[in-house]
Amino acid sequence: MPILLIILALLIAPSAPANAQGYLRATHQVSGEGSSKCKAYLHAVEGVRDLPILLMLGGTGVYSTGDAVENNGILKSLVDRKKVIVLTLDKPGISYSATAPRHFVIDDLMYNQYTQRDLVRCAGNALKWVSEARYASTYSNIHFLTQSEGTQVAVRIYDALSKQDPGMARRIRSMFMVGLVMRPWRDIINAQLPGPAENANFWKAYQNRDDVTLRSFGGLAYAYWNEILSVESNEDALRRLVAQSPAASLQIFHGLKDVNTLVQPVMDFEVWNNSRLQSKSPRWDLAARYYNAPHGLNMAAFRDILSAFESELKR
């Protein structure tokens, strides 16, 4: 389970589900690129319609989000109080199963072929499904709650929808980002590998397309690494998108001791974005908060996230 789910779950001790079926209202298979498919899950209390949509995008790793609300006190609080409906995605090849040992089953062949581009396409199709199935209206606001890898997926979704479905892109009101990825992935990999031997092993496995070895580095196979190493950095994407005068706000929560996604590029981006106000250039509506904490942040940070999100819903 990703750090975001673990720490959010600690903030409010989850009680029993509102009904025997819990909060999982619907499951749908959505298309990624080519033949790739993702399971999408809609979480809500019975009978609600037309609430804002909260799309949750977690970090790398092998897990299912089919029981995300039941296991997460903050999401449960928002859903119980009818503030939002929650939309989550599983990576291609993963499916939720209440009876499986880790509450999911995995098709390794499909999983090993997935890329971040699949997650972007799946998320766009999942958002369309929620509206087409009338769980939300075509006017419902959309918010992203993202962590680590999910922060880059969110930016890529926003970019893709701005080109392919501008109407839906305008409905995205905020992107909450925990452990914001900024640097190119090649730099991130080289910084995170603990020593020369591990570095050599990774790049040898990458050259040989050795999925077994590569999955020991963050649970990601060759197809994923090959795609992500070829795309622009998240920082470059954010700087490029600012020219569109984006309507979505960026709410950034970052640890000063984060060694997975370093804080300095985030601070540099904040300074650059704020400097655009003086020249009356387009800029992101951005608020950044920093904590004396590692990648997983701390309780104070996640209380701030809840407070900021509830304020965002009132705007």
Describe this structure in words.
Helix content is 42%, strand content 18%. Helix 4 (116-132) packs across helix 5 and helix 5 (149-164) packs parallel to helix 11. The protein has 315 residues and is of the alpha/beta class. The protein starts with a helix and ends with a helix. It has 2 domains: 3-182 and 233-314, Rossmann fold; 184-232, no CATH class. The model is unreliable at 5-20 (pLDDT under 50). It is globular.
Keywords:
single chain, 315 residues, alpha/beta, Rossmann fold, 2 domains, eight-stranded mixed sheet, two-stranded antiparallel sheet, 13 helices, 42% helix, globular
Q: Can I get a quick summary?
A:
By secondary structure, the protein is of the alpha/beta class. It contains 13 helices and ten strands. It starts with a helix and ends with a helix.
